[in-house]
């Protein structure tokens, strides 16, 4: 079953117990090939790895998936890259779902307004957000003494916009607590696995 918020799992490489939201679950398929299970619904013994590409590759190189599964497990070529793409897809789908549910509001001016009204629970900022937008957001947070409000780096502006069904998006605010937890967890696993985007300029 999917790991619920607050659940912990052990990374097969480090042996460290950490929140399940910081790991990726894999299983051995019927043919013994390793399969990523991001939804955590596939049957079989869960093989948990910290959501970092280098950790996954080290675990594969050391044969730790076979050891943890107590059977011979093969790691298909390109699985690390595929997992990264699946994590990206899941994060973007979470953003899209939040927008459709009406709990993700985009556009810097609207985001600043929601912060002022105390309705913003977290801010997602494009990886290639420009310096001016970043400065305006942080100045607003400082003026309202809301530096504790989470501001997380998400996809680049183009990907962000595609997920929300509009041109380039730089900033968006989450207004629902439950959806906030899901979106931030999915973005965190993606960005932990591999950095998303690079510096640059965007538009609201």
What does this structure look like?
There is one protein chain. Helix 4 (108-117) runs parallel beside helix 5. The chain has 204 residues and is α+β, with helices and mostly antiparallel strands. Strand 3 (23-28) and strand 4 form a beta hairpin. It contains 7 helices and 9 strands; from the N terminus they run βββββαααβαβαβαβα. The strands form 3 sheets. Strands 6-9-7-8 form a 4-stranded mixed sheet, with helices on both faces. The protein has a 3-stranded antiparallel sheet with strand order 4-3-5. A two-stranded antiparallel sheet has the order 1-2. The chain folds into 2 domains: 8-76, Hypothetical Cytosolic Protein, Chain: A (2-Layer Sandwich); 87-193, 60s Ribosomal Protein L30, Chain: A (2-Layer Sandwich), CATH 3.30.1330. The termini are far apart. The model is unreliable at 196-203 (pLDDT under 50). Helices cover 42% and strands 16% of the residues. It is elongated, with a radius of gyration of 19 Å.
Features:
60s Ribosomal Protein L30, Chain: A; 42% helix; 7 helices; Hypothetical Cytosolic Protein, Chain: A; three-stranded antiparallel sheet; disordered C terminus; 204 residues; alpha+beta
In total, how many beta strands? Answer: 9
Question: Mean of residue pLDDT?
Answer: 91
Q: What percentage of the residues does DSSP assign to strands (E)? A: 15-25%
Query: What structural category do the secondary elements indicate?
Result: alpha+beta
Question: Could you provide a short overview of the structure?
Answer:
With 204 residues, this protein is of the alpha+beta class. It has helices spanning 53-61, 64-69, 79-100, 108-117, 131-143, 157-164, 177-193, and strands at 8-10, 17-19, 23-28, 34-36, 47-50, 104-106, 122-125, 151-153, 171-174. The termini are far apart.
